[in-house]
């Protein structure tokens, strides 16, 4: 369960960690909007702008003293999705000029099917020894298409692959866009404690109080939920181990067995979380918590030079992107 | 047979942190006749150690042999059957109950190991009787009984699998004195009647002195003592283990200081009483 990177907090003391959570949250939102505003067009400015935003996130990652390598490793879980969109784009967009001189004859033949199976088997067997697994995966995908082009022996059926420059650009564009978005949002959770994040959400939503939205209750709900995700994960792991000791094999079993196993996991976790929430409610009440009452904070957030600078920068970035969109 | 640890280390891995929970542990545990207490501070690796015994955790380095099965296993080797041979009762095992009735919950373990319903029922009934759960309770919900009884039902759930070695992670934690003694007596009976090996984690030195034959002391993932309990409490560096003395020895030490009765170790209250009668104050 430790392999889940998205949504975790990595302790540190970089300027990004110390940034005011309100500003950080606002800047992330602005940044995301900026990424989406960049038009999906094949001209060079779009690419430069997107590339700059992408480089910007990488620089932010470095300045937060989070290893870029680890960050990219965290993207592993979505690489299949990314590759899938890439392939779909390349195949479906039929605009612009063709790169290949003539359509490539792709054949699904006995030879190529055997080659594809071989590639997949070799990939599965060797991937654990390869350090750059993502790159290796991409190579495998390319190889799968390559053998279809060069092994037409004992053909079953064939299709034509026409690669247009527009399709290539667009798929690359979407690839970079998704990557940038995920890195940016991960950066927020990596460098912000849930309490800070919660404070940021609470104070950004404060204007809603005017129309009688109970913002502080939502904020408390949010913070309690976030706070208890890791706890529940730990409890679930414990129960999993306890049931594994009673012979439950979560890896190898039939569907019918799986249902019983999930029940054996769910009921204890429910019981534990009900007990916990009752204890927590009592503990909060004992400490004088009253729903909706005005509360003071142990940490007073003060805007510093860095915070103002970040806010200004975010505004400059989005203005620049909007300006480029308007003139482009 | 039994369980052999050969220079086993285990490392917990976080995003930025690594934590060595077991450091080069070598142990040999026999299949029969052992009554081992594992003691040590919280965080010294006791729970990690016992979770290796039924292959819930696999060593990150070194080798572990459980009933002839080498761990970590080769690819495609199944290890689930080890959990039937080494029954592990977790801390606060009452949280693992989930079935509608008590008897069904006790039958859950045996049924997972492909034992027929009739046979599982027989085993469950036996196990329930061993821990002192009445037939009248069998059809009740496991959530409607007291905490102490829930603990017994959970223990019965492991006993019903008829494990060769029984491993207990702080079985008496959170129980009242009476419940503690009763539960410990169940384990002692199992040990004496079937000569079954029992391994238990505890912080209670009285349990160690009264029941255990062999004691393993862990400190920061290392085994710092492994031997008879008599050798432990008489060990010249006993203070370096940061452990408490059991009550009978405390009394004897105190009597030596105050009444000048010569110190001689006795590990339970009966023999202490006999000794005091002999020296006749």
Fold blueprint:
The complex is a heterodimer of chains A (328) and B (281).
Chain A: H1 15-18, H2 21-37, H3 44-63, H4 68-74, H5 79-92, E1 104-109, H6 110-126, H7 133-150, E2 155-161, H8 165-191, H9 194-205, H10 215-245, H11 255-286, H12 305-327
Antiparallel strand pairs in A: 1-2
Chain B: E1 3-13, E2 18-29, E3 35-40, H1 46-53, E4 61-66, E5 69-71, H2 82-85, E6 86-89, H3 102-112, H4 117-130, H5 147-159, E7 165-169, H6 177-194, E8 197-201, H7 205-211, E9 214-219, E10 222-228, H8 229-233, H9 247-258, H10 269-279
Helix pairs in contact in B: 3-4, 3-5, 4-5
Architecture overview:
The complex is a heterodimer of chains A (328) and B (281). Chain A has a domain at 215-291. The longest helix of chain A has 32 residues, at 255-286. A two-stranded antiparallel ribbon of chain A has the order 1-2. With 328 residues, chain A is mainly alpha-helical. Chain A is built from twelve helices and two strands, in the order αααααβααβααααα. In chain B, the strands form two sheets. A six-stranded mixed beta sheet of chain B has the order 6-7-8-3-9-10, with helices on both faces. In chain B, strands 2-1-4-5 form a four-stranded antiparallel beta sheet, covered by helices on one side. In chain B, α3 packs across α4 (117-130), α3 (102-112) packs parallel to α5 and α4 (117-130) crosses α5. Chain B is globular, with a radius of gyration of 20 Å. Chain A binds chain B through residues 2, 5, 8, 10-11, 70, 238-239, 241-249, 252, 263-264, 266-268, 271-272, and chain B through 13-16, 51, 54, 56, 78, 80, 83-84, 87-90, 93, 95-98, 108-110, 112-113, 143, 157-158, 161.
């Amino acid at each position: 369960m430790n392999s889940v990177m998205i949504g975790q907090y990595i302790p540190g003391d970089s300027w990004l960690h110390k940034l005011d959570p309100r500003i950080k949250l606002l800047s992330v939102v602005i940044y995301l909007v900026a990424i989406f505003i960049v038009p999906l067009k094949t001209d060079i400015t779009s690419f430069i702008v997107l590339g700059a935003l992408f480089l910007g996130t990488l620089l932010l990652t470095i300045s937060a003293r989070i290893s870029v390598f680890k960050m990219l490793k965290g993207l592993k879980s979505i690489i299949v999705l990314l590759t899938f969109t890439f392939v779909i784009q390349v195949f479906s967009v039929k605009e612009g000029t063709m790169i290949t001189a003539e359509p490539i004859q792709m054949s699904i033949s006995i030879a190529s099917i055997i080659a594809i199976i071989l590639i997949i088997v070799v990939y599965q067997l060797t991937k654990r020894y390869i350090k750059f697994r993502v790159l290796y995966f991409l190579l495998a995908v390319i190889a799968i298409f390559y053998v279809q082009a060069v092994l037409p022996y004992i053909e079953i059926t064939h299709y034509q692959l026409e690669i247009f420059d527009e399709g290539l650009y667009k798929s690359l564009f979407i690839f970079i866009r998704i990557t940038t978005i995920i890195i940016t949002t991960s950066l927020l959770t990596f460098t912000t404690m849930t309490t800070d994040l919660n404070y940021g959400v609470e104070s950004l939503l404060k204007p809603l109080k005017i129309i009688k939205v109970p913002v502080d209750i939502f904020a408390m709900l949010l913070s309690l939920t976030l706070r208890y995700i890791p706890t529940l994960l730990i409890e679930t792991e414990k129960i999993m181990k306890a049931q594994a000791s009673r012979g439950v094999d979560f890896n190898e079993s039939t569907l019918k067995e799986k249902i019983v196993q999930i029940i054996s996991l769910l009921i204890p976790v429910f019981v534990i979380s009900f007990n916990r929430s009752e204890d927590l409610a009592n503990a909060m009440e004992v400490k004088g918590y009253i729903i909706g009452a005005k509360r003071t904070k142990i940490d007073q957030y003060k805007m510093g030079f860095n915070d103002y600078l970040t806010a200004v920068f975010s505004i400059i970035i989005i203005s620049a992107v909007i300006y480029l969109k308007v003139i482009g | 047979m039994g369980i052999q640890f050969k220079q086993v280390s285990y490392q917990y891995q976080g995003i930025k942190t690594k934590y060595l929970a077991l450091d080069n542990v070598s142990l040999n545990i026999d299949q029969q006749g052992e009554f081992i207490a594992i003691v040590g501070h919280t965080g010294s690796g006791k729970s990690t150690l016992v979770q290796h015994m039924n292959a819930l955790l696999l060593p990150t380095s070194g080798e572990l042999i459980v009933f002839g099965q080498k761990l970590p296993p080769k690819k495609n080797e199944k290890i689930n059957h080890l959990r039937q041979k080494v029954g592990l009762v977790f801390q606060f095992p009452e949280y693992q109950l989930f079935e509608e009735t008590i008897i069904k919950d006790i039958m859950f373990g045996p049924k997972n190991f492909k034992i027929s319903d009739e046979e599982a029922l027989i085993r469950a009934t036996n196990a329930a009787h061993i821990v002192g759960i009445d037939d009248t309770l069998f059809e009740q919900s496991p959530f409607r009984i007291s905490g102490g009884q829930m603990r017994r039902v959970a223990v019965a759930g492991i006993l019903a699998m008829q494990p060769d070695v029984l491993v207990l992670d702080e079985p008496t934690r959170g129980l009242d004195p009476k419940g503690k003694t009763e539960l410990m007596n169940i384990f002692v009976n199992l040990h004496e009647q079937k000569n079954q090996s029992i391994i238990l984690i505890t912080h209670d030195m009285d349990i160690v002195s009264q029941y255990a034959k062999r004691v393993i002391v862990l400190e920061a993932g290392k085994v710092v003592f492994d031997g008879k309990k008599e050798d432990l409490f008489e060990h010249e560096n006993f203070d370096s283990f940061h452990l408490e003395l059991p009550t009978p020895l405390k009394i004897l030490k105190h009597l030596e200081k105050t009444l000048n009765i010569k110190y001689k170790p006795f590990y339970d209250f009966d023999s202490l009483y006999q000794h005091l009668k002999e020296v006749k104050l």
